């Protein structure tokens, strides 16, 4: 594991009630049926969410670890991290806690590059770990047709970049957002929520959000990183080259999405403003990095529907910020 330089930044978000009012107005402009409110968090361990933690409350924090420049222009293979060591760097209690989020899978464990959806909780000094983390990868062994594989990954390691929402995993008040039938241009649910908070709050204070949303019906577009390019094909000479290297997939609901996003943030921290990784709610080979919904299928019959449970972070940790 590398040495992780960490900086800590206190946040003072608005109340959940204030944020619910902002988001309620926004989602009703983008969806036919929509609402945002504050409720007591349901037990997210239950289907269809299948999280390793009951709630999203208690010492809420986020971490931005590494970054995209650890992937391109050239992958930095020394950038290997431990989710447990990240939790310690986030000053999380060893007695009880949880992490969810999005990042790159541990290539040194999985055996190839992949997308990671961290989903774990712990008790008793990090000894009793419930790890439901999923990895989405391209099956390079069976064929060359870019078949997606999504499965649970028992390791607590990761690599390159990671965005995490941490909490004690307690039940408490959260934002509940429902949205069905998109009528606006906000195709990405998480980016749409981020944009709404940016418009209303960015000049007053930073709002950082983490949590889970379910794609209940419809289809969405995802990417899954294939294995790393051969040395002769490196370095990536542009972001367009990276996009051409990625594999893109359409997956059907139900899909669970773990998300972290910021309304704004100081430039010197080089934050990733939104990051969402997903896995199938029914154990199918569907998951990866969420891009946006495909609200209408070729027959014009598909309709997207979301259900989200989110909370604000009170502390931000920047870990191993790229130069």
How is this structure best summarized?
The chain has helices at about 15-30, 85-90, 105-110, 190-200, 240-245; strands at about 5-10, 30-40, 60-65, 80, 95-105, 115, 120-125, 130, 135-140, 150, 155-165, 175-180, 210-215, 220-225, 245-250, 255-260, 275-280, 285-295, 305-310, 315-320.
SSE topology sketch:
Layout: E1 6-10, H1 16-30, E2 31-40, E3 61-66, E4 80-82, H2 83-89, E5 96-104, H3 107-110, E6 115-117, E7 119-123, E8 128-131, E9 134-138, E10 148-152, E11 157-167, E12 173-182, H4 189-201, E13 208-217, E14 219-224, H5 239-245, E15 247-252, E16 255-262, E17 274-280, E18 287-294, E19 305-312, E20 315-319
Parallel strand pairs: 3-20
Antiparallel strand pairs: 1-20, 2-12, 3-11, 4-11, 5-6, 5-7, 5-11, 6-9, 7-8, 9-10, 12-19, 13-16, 13-19, 14-15, 14-18, 16-17, 17-18
Helix pairs in contact: 1-4
What is the mean pLDDT?
93
Question: How large is the radius of gyration?
Answer: 18 Å
Distance separating the two termini? 18 Å
Number of DSSP E strands: 20
Globular, elongated, flat, extended or rod-shaped: what is the shape? globular
* Share of helix, binned: 10-25%
Largest sheet features = 11 strands, mixed
- Structural class category: mainly beta
Strand content: 35-45%
């Amino acid at each position: 594991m590398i040495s992780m330089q960490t900086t800590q930044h206190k946040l003072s978000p608005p109340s959940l009630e204030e944020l619910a009012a902002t988001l309620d107005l926004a989602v009703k402009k983008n969806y036919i049926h929509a609402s945002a409110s504050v409720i007591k968090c349901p037990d997210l361990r239950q289907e269809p969410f299948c999280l390793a933690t009951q709630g999203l409350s208690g010492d809420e924090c986020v971490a931005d670890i590494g970054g995209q420049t650890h992937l391109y222009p050239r992958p930095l293979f020394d950038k290997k991290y431990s989710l447990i060591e990240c939790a310690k760097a986030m000053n999380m209690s060893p007695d009880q806690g949880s992490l969810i989020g999005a990042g790159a899978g541990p290539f040194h464990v999985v055996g190839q590059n992949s997308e990671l959806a961290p989903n774990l909780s712990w008790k008793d000094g990090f000894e009793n770990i419930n790890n439901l983390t999923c990895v989405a990868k391209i099956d390079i062994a069976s064929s060359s047709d870019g078949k997606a594989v999504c499965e649970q990954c028992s390791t607590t390691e990761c690599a390159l970049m990671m965005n995490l929402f941490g909490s004690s995993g307690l039940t408490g008040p959260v934002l509940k957002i429902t949205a069905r039938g998109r009528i606006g241009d906000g195709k990405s649910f998480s980016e749409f929520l981020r944009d709404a908070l940016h418009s209303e709050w960015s000049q007053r204070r930073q709002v950082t959000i983490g949590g889970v949303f379910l794609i209940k019906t419809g289809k969405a577009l995802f990417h899954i990183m294939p294995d790393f390019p051969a040395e002769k094909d490196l370095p990536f000479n542009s972001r367009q080259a990276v996009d051409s290297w990625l594999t893109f997939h359409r997956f059907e609901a139900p899909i669970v999405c773990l998300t972290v996003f910021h309304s704004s943030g100081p430039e010197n921290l080089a934050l990733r403003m939104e990051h969402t990784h997903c896995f199938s709610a029914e154990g199918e080979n569907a998951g990866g990095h969420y891009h946006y919904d495909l609200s209408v299928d070729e027959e014009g019959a598909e309709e997207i529907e979301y259900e989200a449970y989110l909370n604000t972070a009170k502390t931000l940790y920047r870990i191993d910020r790229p130069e």
